[in-house]
């Protein structure tokens, strides 16, 4: 086993740590999560860790006939490593061979207990453990443990690898790494920076402020829900103390769960009145407390009532309303919220994808992912990345790449073999014949002129279609291209086709057919989760 230590394995059954942590005159015992006892001297711990000093100031549990015992959540490997560094021993004996997961666990514990020397020694060992061939794994450790120096140095190594972009396959599910971390790593790799010029574990303040104002402004501008119907008979109190005046019948019809909760709070009041208790005045209303915040309830109640309501474009708020609709079994409200999600995803496609993916609303994430195809993701940042897992962002990048690959494949299939000729060779052949004609007074072969012109047209057509697909955008609800933006009109406008009946006409026709069918064909591309 990698990093196996025979002394530790031997003591797992004995419950006593290896030397020098087995001395009977020690004054404190640290017990690991796998029940290995390390007998240490508390003054060494006092000097090594202010956190341990605080912990040991509280009287620990004490077994009869033994020194006090402190139970810790770390395993024996981690405690053994930290204690060896604190004790006056040689570096080789202190560390030995440790795998990356073991080093990560030890560094996390050193940070937790504020142990400066172990942290310094272990970070140096981490950066030297795998050199540059484990750079992506070391970068991941730096992200998870918020070690800026480790993440920056490893990112510089990753940018020097001949892959062009980070290969994260060895990181599995990329737990503990945010989409913002991965975005900044990709940016560093594109720039080829051996030493990153900006922090890798925190966002750019400028981009954070700009994007944050956009989303927060949408959410903050929302007015609180007020029913236009007269005579409300129910007070709904939000988790943050805001009271909404609503109608029992409206909420009861919208949600079976809320109908049961309303009935439950009405029963005691009815029983009290029937028993001769004080009657309710017209000003006293039944009160129902709900677990959602006021912003969520405001949107939720708006969808419960009939009529058109202006709803927020905040993806987080829309997902929270969808979650509330599922929780309260409000089917009609859920349907309206899903319809509104189409609008939200179109306006804020990237944050909408990140929010819905994080909440595991996969259908909503697929809708938002389709809307992100309208623009490239390169150099596009949003603060929501800091709260979203890197794996979701990687899946979106892979989805974009797969869509681009499919579109290019379909476009090339629509072209005849003539479109695949080498334009540079045809231009060179035409140049040579013209030079020969000027020198010897001969004529340029008509076939050469026609071939060069045709190849030039096909080059224009490929660029036209590729630009149209990725610049104009592809939306799932859009209709096929109108006649005024088809390839025929574009070719005539740019002087690429004079209306004659030649093979280029058939190519235009095939390309238009492909473009009209692209949206449907993109349904073949799966989005991973």
From TrEMBL:
Chain segments carrying region Disordered:
1-23
Sorted alphabetically, which InterPro entries does this protein's record hold?
A: BTB/POZ_dom (IPR000210), SKP1/BTB/POZ_sf (IPR011333)
- Superkingdom, according to UniProt? Eukaryota
Which residues belong to any copy of the BTB domain?
A: 26-87
**Which Gene3D superfamilies does this one have?**
Potassium Channel Kv1.1, Chain A
Q: What is this protein called?
A: BTB domain-containing protein
Q: Which organism is it from?
A: Lentinus brumalis
- Show the taxonomic lineage: Eukaryota, Fungi, Dikarya, Basidiomycota, Agaricomycotina
């Amino acid at each position: 086993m990698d990093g196996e230590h025979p002394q530790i394995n031997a003591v797992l059954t004995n419950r006593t740590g290896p030397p020098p942590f087995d001395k009977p005159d020690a004054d404190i015992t640290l017990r690991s999560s796998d029940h290995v006892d390390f007998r240490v001297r508390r003054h060494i711990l006092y000097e090594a860790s202010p956190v341990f000093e605080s912990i040991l100031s509280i009287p620990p549990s004490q077994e009869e006939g033994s020194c006090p015992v402190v139970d810790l959540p770390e395993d024996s490997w981690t405690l053994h490593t930290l204690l060896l560094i604190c004790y006056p021993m040689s570096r080789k004996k202190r560390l030995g061979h440790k795998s990356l997961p073991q080093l990560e666990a030890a560094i996390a514990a050193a940070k937790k207990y504020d142990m400066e020397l172990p942290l310094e020694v272990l970070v140096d060992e981490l950066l030297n453990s795998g050199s540059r061939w484990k750079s992506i794994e070391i970068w991941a450790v730096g992200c998870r443990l918020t070690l800026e120096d480790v993440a920056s140095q490893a990112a510089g190594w990753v940018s020097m690898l001949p892959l062009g972009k980070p290969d994260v396959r060895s990181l599995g599910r990329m737990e503990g790494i945010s989409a913002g971390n991965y975005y900044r790593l990709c940016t560093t790799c594109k720039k080829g920076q051996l030493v990153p010029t900006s922090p890798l574990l925190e966002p750019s303040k400028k981009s954070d402020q700009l994007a944050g104002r956009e989303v927060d402004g949408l959410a903050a501008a929302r007015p609180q829900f007020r029913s236009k119907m007269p005579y409300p008979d129910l007070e709904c109190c939000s988790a943050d103390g805001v009271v909404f005046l609503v109608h029992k019948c409206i909420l009861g019809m919208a949600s079976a769960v809320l109908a049961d909760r309303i009935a439950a709070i009405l029963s005691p009041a009815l029983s009290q009145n029937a028993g001769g208790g004080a009657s309710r005045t017209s000003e006293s209303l039944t009160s129902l407390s709900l677990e959602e915040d006021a912003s969520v309830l405001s949107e939720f109640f708006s969808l419960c009532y009939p009529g058109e309501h202006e709803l927020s474009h905040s993806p987080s708020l829309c997902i929270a309303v969808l979650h509330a609709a599922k929780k309260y079994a409000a089917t009609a409200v859920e349907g309206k919220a899903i319809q509104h999600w189409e609008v939200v995803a179109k306006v804020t496609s990237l944050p909408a994808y990140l929010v819905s993916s994080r909440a595991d609303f996969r259908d909503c994430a697929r809708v938002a992912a389709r809307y992100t195809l309208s623009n490239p993701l390169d150099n596009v940042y949003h603060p929501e990345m800091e709260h979203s897992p890197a794996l979701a962002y990687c899946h979106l990048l892979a989805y974009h790449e797969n869509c681009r690959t499919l579109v290019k494949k379909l476009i090339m299939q629509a072209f005849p073999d003539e479109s695949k000729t080498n334009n540079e060779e045809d231009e060179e052949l035409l140049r040579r014949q013209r030079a020969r004609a000027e020198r010897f007074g001969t004529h340029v072969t008509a076939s050469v002129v026609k071939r060069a012109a045709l190849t030039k047209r096909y080059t224009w057509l490929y660029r036209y279609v590729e630009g149209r697909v990725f610049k104009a955008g592809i939306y799932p609800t859009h209709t096929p291209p109108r006649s005024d933006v088809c390839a025929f009109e574009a070719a005539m406008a740019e002087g690429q086709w004079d209306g004659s009946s030649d093979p280029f006409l058939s190519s235009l026709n095939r390309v238009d057919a492909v473009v009209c069918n692209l949206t449907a064909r993109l349904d073949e591309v799966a989005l991973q989760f």
